[in-house]
């Protein structure tokens, strides 16, 4: 790996006698992690079915593990069941350090492909609301799939600029995650393109974006709300310097100090202009101090007054108001038919009671997609099967992990299994995978085409 000379000189000046150790980290292996989905199973249940040998705990994220080279977690049926997310271990820090309380309204402002959104969504435990946003609609589609696979029900997904979101959500959120677009110096070890991008775009371009995003996040925070700012870069301009400039502009905000564990170091006030001690309450993850690529994390609280001016969705419909949907839900599930929904071009989305009105925004998913009313029938979505435990479904077929039918199902094949006539949910080791339709000993495979195993 050839590091840009300018970068090397700068980091040497910053790290001084740590510089050699930092350079040595480029010969260390790439660290890969998985994070268990606590919406679907607890630690004990995971330990009972874990298919990977020698997982090692990530010290700053209690659901995180390093897996070994040769493991293929993305190819395992448990990945299709949404039991875990694959994530670089240092990237687990922002989602682990942001305080989340039951019922919080959380915004993940730069969310794709969904590492931190799935983490925070799991921590919300299906309470409150998670709005996940990314400026790129293409990346937001990948984000949507990850959120759906995780079974996060209380979520909305948008593809917007922070400026446009801020016009809708003034003073609305309790917590905001800003995993800012950055110069990506922490990605150099595993991705040569990150070096090219650093040389092309430069740090100043990223700083401009970060300043705008932080300002908009401030507008969207409630009084006492907290935002967690993170980057995967080392440059002080995008980290301590960015926070310092923000706090100068907003004296009603303060850093909530965080304490590093497992080799995580504190922020470096000496790398800022003001050298304010409070900046040491931020965290720095370095590849020469821990097993991870690198991150910066800082938690900020807004104390100033803010008023929630966000328009709420006027819920006019519930499941019971659409006869075909009501019949499907009552026949096949134990879902409450009073649950609020919205209907958009025959597609039905589950809503939370206090959902915000997203009109005028570029919306990727307005609530959890339940399915489609089509030619006087209801086609249930893949998401519906993944978003609830097996007990929610009246007909559930469970397969053992070694059963060849698991892979056949994930590949979209028809299965020869006796089951009650009509819709069934099929799953593996107690965890739903998707729908099948049973008739005369045959299961028609309804596993969504774009989710199939290759
Ligand atoms: C570091 S990545 C986010 C990674 C993500 N948080 C995760 O954990 O999977 C930064 C993201 O910011 C998005 N982005 C860039 N500029 C943005 C803006 N002005 N508003 C919102 N998102 C933006 C990029 O498309 C990119 O997906």
UniProtKB/TrEMBL annotation:
Cytoplasm listed as a keyword: yes
Positions annotated to bind S-adenosyl-L-methionine: 110-116, 134, 179
Keyword Amino-acid biosynthesis: no
Domain SAM-dependent MTase RsmB/NOP-type positions: 22-303
Source organism superkingdom: Bacteria
Active site: 232
Cited InterPro entries: Methyltr_RsmF_N, MeTrfase_RsmB-F_NOP2_cat, MeTrfase_RsmB-F_NOP2_dom, Nol1_Nop2_Fmu_2, RCMT, RsmF_methylt_CI, SAM-dependent_MTases_sf
Keyword field: Cytoplasm, Methyltransferase, RNA-binding, S-adenosyl-L-methionine, Transferase
Protein name per the record: RsmB/NOP family class I SAM-dependent RNA methyltransferase
Organism: Holtiella tumoricola
């Amino acid at each position: 790996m050839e590091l840009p000379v300018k970068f090397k000189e700068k980091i040497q000046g910053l790290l001084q006698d740590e510089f050699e150790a930092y350079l040595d980290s480029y010969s260390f292996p790439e660290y890969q992690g998985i994070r268990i989905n606590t919406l679907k199973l607890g630690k004990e249940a995971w330990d009972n079915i874990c298919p990977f040998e020698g997982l090692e705990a990530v010290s700053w994220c209690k659901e995180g593990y390093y897996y070994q080279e040769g493991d293929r977690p993305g190819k395992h049926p448990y990945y299709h069941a949404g039991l875990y997310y694959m994530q670089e271990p240092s990237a687990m820090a922002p989602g682990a350090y942001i305080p989340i309380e039951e019922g919080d309204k959380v915004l993940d402002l730069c969310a794709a492909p969904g590492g931190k959104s799935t983490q925070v969504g799991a921590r919300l435990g299906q309470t409150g609301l998670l709005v996940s946003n990314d400026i790129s609609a293409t990346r937001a589609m990948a984000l949507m799939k990850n959120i759906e696979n995780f079974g996060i029900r209380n979520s909305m997904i948008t593809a917007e600029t922070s400026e446009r979101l801020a016009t809708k959500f003034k003073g609305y959120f309790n917590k905001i995650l800003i995993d800012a677009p950055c110069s990506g110096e922490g990605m150099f070890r595993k991705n040569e393109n990150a070096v090219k991008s650093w040389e092309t775009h430069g740090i100043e371009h990223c700083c401009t974006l970060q300043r705008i995003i932080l300002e908009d996040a401030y507008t969207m925070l409630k009084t006492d709300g907290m935002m967690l700012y993170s980057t995967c870069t080392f440059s002080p301009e995008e980290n301590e310097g960015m926070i310092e400039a923000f706090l100068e502009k907003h004296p009603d905000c303060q850093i909530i100090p965080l304490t590093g564990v497992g080799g995580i170091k504190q922020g470096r006030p000496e790398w800022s202009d003001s050298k304010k001690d409070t900046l040491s309450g931020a965290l720095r993850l370095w590849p020469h101090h821990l097993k991870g690529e690198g991150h910066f994390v800082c938690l900020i609280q807004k104390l100033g007054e803010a008023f929630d001016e966000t328009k709420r969705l006027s819920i006019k419909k519930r499941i019971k108001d659409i006869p075909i949907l009501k019949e499907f839900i009552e026949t096949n599930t134990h879902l409450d038919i009073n649950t609020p929904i919205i209907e958009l071009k025959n597609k039905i989305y589950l809503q939370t009671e206090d959902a915000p009105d997203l009109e005028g925004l570029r919306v990727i998913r307005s609530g959890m997609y339940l399915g489609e009313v089509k030619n006087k029938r209801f086609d249930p979505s893949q998401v519906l099967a993944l978003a609830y435990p097996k007990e929610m479904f009246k007909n559930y077929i469970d397969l053992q992990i070694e059963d060849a039918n698991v892979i056949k199902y994930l590949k979209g094949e028809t299965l020869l299994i006796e089951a009650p006539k009509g819709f069934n949910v099929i799953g593996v080791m107690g965890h739903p995978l998707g729908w099948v339709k049973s008739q005369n000993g045959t299961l028609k495979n309804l596993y969504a085409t774009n989710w199939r195993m290759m």
